Every structure is written in structure tokens, then in C-alpha cells.
Amino acid sequence: xxxxxxxxxxxxxxxxxxxxxxxxxxxxxxxxxxxxxxxxxxxxxxxxxxxxxxxxxxxxxxxxxxxxxxxxxxxxxxxxxxxxxxxxxxxxxxxxxxxxxxxxxxxxxxxxxxxxxxxxxxxxxxxxxxxxxxxxxxxxxxxxxxxxxxxxxxxxxxxxxxxxxxxxxxxxxxxxxxxxxxxxxxxxxxxxxxxxxxxxxxxxxxxxxxxxxxxxxxxxxxxxxxxxxxxxxxxxxxxxxxxxxxxxxxxxxxxxxxxxxxxxxxxxxxxxxxxxxxxxxxxxxxxxxxxxxxxxxxxxxxxxxxxxxxxxxxxxxxxxxxxxxxxxxxxxxxxxxxxxxxxxxxxxxxxxxxxxxxxxxxxxxxxxxxxxxxxxxxxxxxxxxxxxxxxxxxxxxxxxxxxxxxxxxxxxxxxxxxxxxxxxxxxxxxxxxxxxxxxxxxxxxxxxxxxxxxxx
Length: 456
What we know:
Blueprint: H1 8-17, H2 21-34, H3 43-50, H4 59-71, H5 101-113, H6 115-122, H7 150-173, H8 179-197, H9 203-222, H10 227-243, H11 247-263, H12 267-281, H13 287-303, H14 307-322, H15 340-353, H16 357-370, H17 376-392, H18 396-410, H19 416-429, H20 436-451
Helix pairs in contact: 2-3, 2-4, 5-8, 5-10, 7-8, 7-9, 8-9, 9-10, 9-11, 10-11, 11-12, 11-13, 12-13, 13-14, 13-15, 14-15, 15-16, 16-17, 17-18, 17-19, 18-20
């Protein structure tokens, strides 16, 4: 019979965290729930781990994430003592600077397009890992026009078109729609385009566009409920932006990674990403982009219950946005604008975390007024957040009005965020289920759930 050895590394981490076995189990269950995993670990489960039992994936990553959150320092799954000494995990994209990010992208997309290999990718959860380093500050652009191959210019125009279509499809129909088609496009076309573009003056901007399209595929994957796969695409997008020398695009993707980590309950990681995004952009970002980055750091400050810094960042973001000059009611251009509606929504998100419900309600009201046609997913999530804010101050009937509007908007959406928002709204309304207004929303929500297939 095999002899198990006590897990001294996990024991040391528990002592550092100041946690009991039961507290670690509770933290792991909470992070698992954010990933859609119904875990039921308790103090005896952790006792078994300490005695040498190795839990199956993704539990080691959830344990690492919980300990990262608690200790305030990076703890990866390999630090937990759950793997044999000689074990080597499949590295995340961007981990090895010697690897070509283009090759990593094409290989990942091809795996994603294979139904057999895709199953393993989509079952992965979020992993704690350091971010790839940002690119160096780029040198000044050369003076004068450069001679560009016609094929390379055509490839760039095609990427711009696909970026617009991918962003709009997510906004209108949710992340699952056309996700596999986008992965197939990247798997097939990027390889051939690289032959026209690499080594030409268009190489840096082509790499940036490829990074942006990979970023959009990450967003689609995240909105399909595949958090681990989304993380792989985000990290690939970071590596592509770095290869193209684009620190601003690197920062924008890192900001999206911060949002993902925050939604999954990884507050320490979310805050670190938000800080690194601002540091990467430095003085290179325009006022709109800096506003966008600051608004996310404000959210992570609020999650850490640092209201003073959160409000300071919100104020700075609003001042910068005034210089940004966006026009309300026009559709936001992917990676080129930060719409007023988005800023208002983010302000409300921060204020709700700080329990300033009335101010949050005012910002959400303004957000509705600035939304452009085609932003169905964003409008739906704004109604859900408004319902939550109104419930927080006892305005049940008004909250139910927004609950109905939310249900109107999500009918054509296939979005994990929308499904989670619906679940959260129902959870908030169940204590009021005997009132006619709440009962009507709950009945519509049940009917919606019966009509819609589960996410794959």
C-alpha cells in the first residue's frame, strides 16, 4: 500500500494565512461557486489534504487562489504541496518569453476548434499566475510614409472588420454567439496573414490588431462561462501586445483580466492587475484610456474596502473622461473609446460596493440615457444592477420594474454574465416572493430558465 506523506507546505501556508481548516474549506467552496462548481468541502476535507491526500483539479488552483487572497501575496498551485516534486504542469500562455505568442495563439485556437480537445480546455478554471512583463517603452515612430505590401494592408483592413463584428455580436447576442467561429478564424487566417506582414513596417500594428481580436475571443470565452480558457486567451493577447510593443493595448487587456478576477472573487489578483495596467500605460495612454484604467482600479479599491482611494480614482477618472470627448448615443468603437454609459455604470458599481445606493442609482439612470443602439447586453446588465441598487434601499416595486426590463433584454442573449445576473436577482427577490410584484418577476424568470438551454 502506498504511504502518504503529510503536506507540510499546505500546513505552512495555513499557518501564514492564520486560517483554520474550516475557513480554508469555506473559501475554496466560495471560489468554486463563482466558477459554477457546487463544492462541499469542510474541515475534515482539509485535514485529509494535510495528511497527504491530493484533491483532483481544479481544487489545487482554488486553494492557491484562496491563499493568495488571504495572504496578499502570489501563491500558485505548485506551492500547495498537492503535486509530486517532479510534476510539470502545462504552462499558461506568455509564461515562457522564448515562445512565440503567434504560435501559442494558433495552437490554442486549433485545440479550441477540436471538439475532443475543447472539452479539456473548457473545464479549466482560473489559475493564479504572475502576468507576463509589459513591453519596453516603444521608440518614436519614424518620419515619413513607409512602403507597405498591398497584401499586408488588406490583412489589416480585414482584422479591423472582424474586430468590429466580434465586438458587436457579443454586445447584441452574448459571448457564446460566434465564439467558435472567431476561434476558427484565428486558427486559419492568422497563420497565412503572418507571412504577408511579419518583417514589414506593418508588423507592430498587425500584432496589436491580432492581440485585440484575441482579447475579444477571451471576452467571449469568459461570457460563455469558460473562465480558464478565457484566461489563456487573455494571456495570449498580453503576449501579442507585448510582441508588438503596444503598452496601451497591454494595459487594456490587463484591465479586462482584472475585471474577470474581480467577478470570480480574486480581489487581490484583480487589484494587482489594475495597478499593473496603469503602470504599463504610464504617459502613453490618452485621457479616455486612463479614465478606463482608473475606473477599474477604483472598483478594486472598493472591493478591498478602501473607500477613500476608490472615490479618489473615480473622481480622477471622471475628470479625464471630460477631456475624452465621446459623443453619447453613438456606438462605442472597440479599443478606441470609453463611452459615457460605461463610465456611469462603473461609478455605480463602485458606489454600490461602498453602500452608497442613492448615488449609484443616479449614475445608473444617467447610464441608460447614454446607451447606444446595439448595446443589448450592457443595457440588460445595467437593469440588473439597478434592480439590485433599488432593493438595497427598499424600493421593491421600482426594482421589479427593472427586473422585467432585464428579462425583456436577455431573451435573445446567450451570456454567462446575464445568466448569473438573473440568478442573483432571483436570490434577492425570493424573500419578497409573497408580494405580487416580486412573484411576477420570479415567475417570468422561471419561464425564461425553462426555455433556455444551459451553457456548454
